[in-house]
Amino acid sequence: MMNTARRPERRTELLAAGAASVTVVLWASAFVSIRSAGAAYSPGALALGRLLAGALTLGLICLVRREGVPPRSAWRGIAVSGVLWFGFYMVALNWGEQEVDAGTAALVVNIGPLLIALLGARFLGDRLPPRLLAGMAVSFAGAVTVGLSMSGGGGSSLLGVVLCLLAAVAYAGGVVAQKPALGRASALQVTTFGCLVGAVMCLPFAGQLVADASDAPVTATLNMVYLGVFPTALAFTTWAYALARTTAGRMGATTYAVPSLVVLMSWLALGEVPGVLTLVGGALCLAGVAVSRSRTGARTAESAPRVEEAEAPR
C-alpha cells in the first residue's frame, strides 16, 4: 500500500525535475543568444523586446488553454516578481555584463541562489539542510571558476559590479515573491502576467527598441525573439511549475548547472574550446547541484516540499 501511495508523489517529483531541467538548458542557451543580440541592442531595448516576444507567446497559449486572470490573492506575488525579476533583473543584468568581465559577473550574479535560500528560509519557512548548503557552496566555487577561466582578462567597473549585485538581489527577491503566488494561481498564469508586468515596466525603452531594430542585423533580432519565446516564455513557465512543487532554495541551487551547460554550448555552437580550468569549474557546478538535490535517508528531508503544498493557500 505504501508503494502504491508513493507513486503519484514520485511522478510529481519526476515531472518537477524534468521541468527544472528544461529551464536550466534553455537559460544556458540564452547566454549564447545574448552575445549576438546584445551587440546590436542596448540593455533596455533587449529586455523589452525579449519580454514582448515572451508575453505575446504566453498570451496566445493562455487563450488556447482558456486560462483566466489570476485571482486577486495571487497578484501581489505576480506584481513583485514581474517588477523585480522580469523587469529590473533583465535590464540590470544586460547592462552589468557590458561593464564587467565574465569572472566578476560570475562571482556577483551567482550569489543569487544563495540569497534565494536565505530569503526562502526567512520569509517562506524553508529549511536549509546541510546538503543544500554544502552543494550550493561547491556550485558557487565552480561558477566562479568557470567565469574566471573565461574572463579573457577583461576589466571591471564599479557600476558594473553594482548592477550585477542589484540583478542578483532582484532575482532572489522575485523568486521568493513568486513562490506564494504559485499556491493561488497556475504556473502559466503567474508566468504570463509576471512577464506582462515586466514588459510594462520596460516600456520607457520602446523608442530605443525601435531605433535599434532598424539598424540591427536579422540574426540579432531573431536571437532576441528566441530569447522571448524559449528562455523566457517556456523556461520561466517550467521554472514556475517546478518551483510550485519544491522549495525556493533547492530550485535556486539547480540553476548552478547553467555555467557548465554554457561551456558546452559555447563549445558546440561557437567553437570556443574550454580549458582545463573551465572544465573543472563546470564539473564542480554539476557536483554541487547533485549534492544539493540529493536526499538523506531521513524522511524529513523528503517531506518538506509536500508540507509546503499542503499548507499553501489555494
UniProtKB/TrEMBL annotation:
Keywords: Membrane, Transmembrane, Transmembrane helix. It holds the Pfam family EamA. Gene3D superfamilies: 1.10.3730.20. The chain crosses the membrane at residues 40-63, 75-96, 102-125, 132-152, 158-178, 190-211, 223-244, 251-270, 276-292. Residues 19-146, 159-291 form the EamA domain. Belongs to the EamA transporter family. This is DMT family transporter. It comes from Streptomyces galilaeus.
